């Protein structure tokens, strides 16, 4: 399912998202204490890559969006993020 359909389920009170572990610890939202997240990705850009128009060649990060409040956490090492 896509981000918006999962987030819509969460807003309506339905159980949406998944639980995650990062570096062996369960992920909890630092804002509301929620434990369900929607996984996404984002490019980590630099001035140099923007200058030359090669942002697509940069590193990416995993984002976890809390289904309760919408807070987004970023994790640069995607190898440490695992769905439970």
UniProtKB/TrEMBL annotation:
Name the lineage.
Bacteria, Bacillati, Actinomycetota, Coriobacteriia, Coriobacteriales
List the protein's name: DNA-binding protein
Any one GO molecular-function label of the UniProt entry: DNA binding
Mind listing the UniProt keywords for this protein, alphabetically? Answer: DNA-binding
């Amino acid at each position: 399912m896509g981000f918006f359909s999962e987030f819509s389920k969460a807003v309506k009170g339905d159980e949406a998202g998944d639980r995650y572990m990062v570096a062996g610890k369960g992920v909890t939202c630092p804002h509301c204490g929620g434990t369900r997240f929607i996984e996404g990705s984002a490019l980590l850009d630099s001035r140099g890559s923007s200058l030359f128009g090669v942002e697509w060649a940069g590193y990416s990060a995993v984002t976890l969006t809390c289904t309760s409040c919408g807070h987004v956490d970023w994790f640069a090492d995607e190898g440490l993020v695992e769905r439970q």
